[in-house]
Amino acid sequence: MSFKRVVITGMGALTPVGNDVPTFWKNLVAGVSGAAPITRFDAEKFRTRFACEVKGLDINDYIPRQEARKMDPFTQYAVIASDEAMKDAGFDTDKLDLDKAGVIWGSGIGGLKTFEDEVLNFSEGGRNPRFNPFFIPKMIADSASGVISIRYGFRGPTFITVSACASATNALIDAFNYIRLGMMNVCISGGSEAAVTNAGMGGFNALKALSERNDSPETASRPYDKDRDGFVLGEGGAALILEEYEHAKARGAKIYAEMIGGGMSSDAYHITAPHPEGRGAYMVMKNTVENAGIRPEEIDYINTHGTSTPIGDPQEIKAIEKFFGEHAYKMNISSTKSMTGHLLGGAGAIEAAACILAIRDQIIPPTINHFTDDPEINPRLNLTFNKAQKREVKIALSNTFGFGGHNASVIFKKYEGD
């Protein structure tokens, strides 16, 4: 059978470096760090006391107070990003076949803040413990997709993907497949996370996964640097409007890029550590390039998983060198987590947006905070250290890897019409 083409016609973002797409992209290109001391709660008891929080956000500027109270922050972030993306796409919903419009979202954790608050309230409740009647619908991860679906009346496939830090990328892959198989015309897809909480910080500190560079938060996320000491926790999300090409063309839509492939693999190795030889990372890139029907040499830019962990960064680089061979040294590679921190299940969405914008503007966002070369990492690689670089970008690849050994990647191509 012949597959339908899938294009991106709208984007929205709520991130630690910008609360909309233009601000997010401007700050990525400028190399702005979103890391700072935590403001939401007293973090003094933790080894890590900073994160990449969303800043300057009044939820009630976007969602009426009564509605917002029924949502965990990760769902609020999803709604805000989706509203921007829908507005950007310019739909006349009266002319949209709502039975073929859906929502496929990603979140690795879901309503962590809600769960934490309700358990604390219960423990302090004495003889008459009380739970919020919205506890369960606020906490469950699929609430984000359900709320967005209800908001726009989308009656097509609506669900959420949960695969740790690969969640949003898996959501994009599912949306891509539903559309190219003709089961949907339009899908709001992406991911969000809101894990900057006591439980989130405490849990990741217990895993020894987070940077502890409290004296310099803005330089703590330093992928591929010799002195990296862990990732910086981030929050927020992004939404992409995926649309069937003929459907988009018929309504005269603005087209950012074409999505041409998605792939997955599993490490089958360890619950938190990547395979030491990058086997799963190698296979997911191979599967994604084959799915896109292109040659590895056609990739111009990779937005890496690049979390700034001592173990993870070199494994991804090994996989890139093994899969791309000599072409690995001709591409640009960067980790935008050096600026946004790690949005966990929402990471794949904001990084997909970064790839699409790199294609649109022909510029590579940098990997900031590079101070010392790592002898384990080949200096021939162009890791776009510290400053953005202009170059021709026709095709970009985004990698995401999650606890449990889940790997997912997507490929976007410059839109060139028929």
Cα-based radius of gyration, to the nearest Å: 20 Å
- The CATH topology of the largest domain is Peroxisomal Thiolase, Chain A, domain 1
CATH level 4 superfamily of the largest domain: Thiolase/Chalcone synthase
Helix content: 25-40%
What is the subunit organization of this protein? single chain
State the end-to-end distance.
19 Å
Q: How much β-strand is present in the residues? A: 15-25%
- Order of strands in the sheet with most strands: 5-4-6-7-1-8-14-13-9-10
Number of E-type strands? 14
Low-confidence segments, ≥5 residues, pLDDT <50?
Answer: none
Order of helices and strands: EHEEHHEHHHEHEHEHEHEHEHHEEEE
How does the major sheet shape up? 10 strands, mixed
The tally of helices reads 13
Shape: globular
Folded structure, characterized:
There is one protein chain. The protein has a ten-stranded mixed beta sheet, with helices on both faces. It has 418 residues and is α/β, with parallel strands linked by helices. β9 (301-303), α11 (312-324) and β10 form a beta-alpha-beta unit. It has helices spanning 21-30, 65-68, 73-89, 112-123, 135-139, 143-152, 167-180, 198-206, 245-250, 279-292, 312-324, 337-340, 347-361, and strands spanning 6-14, 36-37, 50-51, 101-106, 158-161, 186-193, 236-244, 257-266, 301-303, 332-334, 363-364, 389-390, 395-402, 406-413. The protein folds into two domains: 6-257, Peroxisomal Thiolase, Chain A, domain 1 (3-Layer(aba) Sandwich); 262-413, Thiolase/Chalcone synthase (Peroxisomal Thiolase, Chain A, domain 1), CATH 3.40.47. The protein has 13 helices and 14 strands. The model has no long low-confidence stretch (mean pLDDT 96). α7 packs across α13 (347-361). One of its GO terms (cellular component) is cytosol.
